[in-house]
Design goal:
A 6-stranded parallel beta sheet has the order 3-2-1-6-7-8, sandwiched between helices. It has a two-stranded antiparallel ribbon with strand order 4-5. The protein has 10 helices and 8 strands. It is globular. Helix 6 runs parallel beside helix 10. It has about 260 residues and is of the alpha/beta class. It folds into 2 domains: about 160 residues, TPP-binding domain (Rossmann fold), CATH 3.40.50.1220; about 80 residues, SIR2/SIRT2 'Small Domain', CATH 3.30.1600.10. Strand 2, helix 7 and strand 3 form a beta-alpha-beta unit. It starts with a helix and ends with a helix. It binds adenosine-5-diphosphoribose. Adenosine-5-diphosphoribose binds next to helix 2.
Length: about 260
């Protein structure tokens, strides 16, 4: 950690009292979970992630969409948290007033020891019924990963017989109200927001770092690529989540 932005970020982290860590798909990329900007590969290559992740796609072809989410869920179950997830847990231990807000539908923050991140876009592990009240449905047994490209009919809800759907927020759907309100509140009252691995283009989640900046917080961004959050960030560290966050923790708290 020789360069000035890294040192500045370490100092900002060391002196923070109230922090929000805001994460996107790049956070889990080094755990082998593809981001939404990556092209789908293999037998999924002819589909577009942004088109599969819609209520319209599920309505038109539930077996295709459920199969895709089951493939993603089993893949995530076999992934392990990377040093970036572990660094976030260490930061939260050093700065107890830390709120982790994630757009990710994986459970890698939890498995890295961050017990209750706010999931703005739901979770692969909380399927729910398509009935109006969206009551929770049990997870299918975690058997072998389905082959890539498998169409799998969604299970029927044991209570009312409707098809079960993934417990994620699809494009065009509202975010869970309580989670979004808690994230906005944390962003509006923090003194440091650390944005990691997010393209900053999917709204309303992308408002979170902007709310923090407008409220006077310092914003540190970690991303190997330029993003629309560059002008919002006080310091941008151009690197990957695993490497950069691990280095940031070591520089902020060397002992
Ligand atoms: N470390 C850090 N950042 C990375 C890494 C890495 N190893 N690899 C890629 N990135 C960055 C990319 O440069 C990009 O800016 O992660 C970002 C991933 O962008 P998106 O795939 O758009 O992910 P995200 O910002 O989380 O998208 C928001 O959109 O598709 C929906 O609901 C989905 O939650 C998702 C939301």
């Amino acid at each position: 950690m020789e360069d000035a932005p890294a040192q500045r970020a370490a100092r900002l982290l060391r002196t923070a009292h109230r922090m929000v860590v805001f994460t996107g798909a790049g956070m889990s990329a080094e755990s082998g979970v593809p981001t939404f900007r990556d092209d789908l590969t293999g037998l999924w290559a002819r589909y577009d992630a942004a088109q599969l992740a819609t209520p319209q796609a599920f309505q038109a072809d539930p077996d295709l969409v459920w199969g895709w989410y089951e493939w993603r869920r089993t893949r995530v179950s076999r992934a392990v948290p990377n040093p970036g997830h572990l660094a976030v847990t260490t930061m939260a231990a050093r700065i107890p007033d830390t709120t982790v807000v994630t757009q990710n539908v994986d459970d890698l923050h939890e498995r890295a020891g961050t017990p209750a991140p706010i999931h703005l876009h739901g979770s692969l592990f909380t399927p729910r019924c398509t009935a109006v009240d969206g009551h929770p449905a049990p997870l299918p047994p975690d058997t072998e990963a389905p082959p890539e490209g498998s169409r799998i009919p969604p299970p029927r809800c044991a209570t009312c017989g409707h098809p079960v759907r993934p417990g994620v927020v699809w494009f065009g759907e509202p975010l869970p109200e309580a989670e979004f309100a808690a994230a906005v509140d944390a962003a509006a009252t923090c003194d440091l927001l650390l944005a990691v691995g997010t393209s900053g283009v999917v709204h309303p989640a992308a408002e979170i770092p902007r709310v923090a900046a407008r409220s006077g917080a310092t914003v540190i961004q970690v991303n190997p690529q330029p993003t629309p959050l560059d002008p919002v960030a006080t310091v941008t560290l151009r690197g990957t989540a695993a490497q950069t966050l691990h280095g940031l923790v070591s520089a902020a708290w060397p002992h």
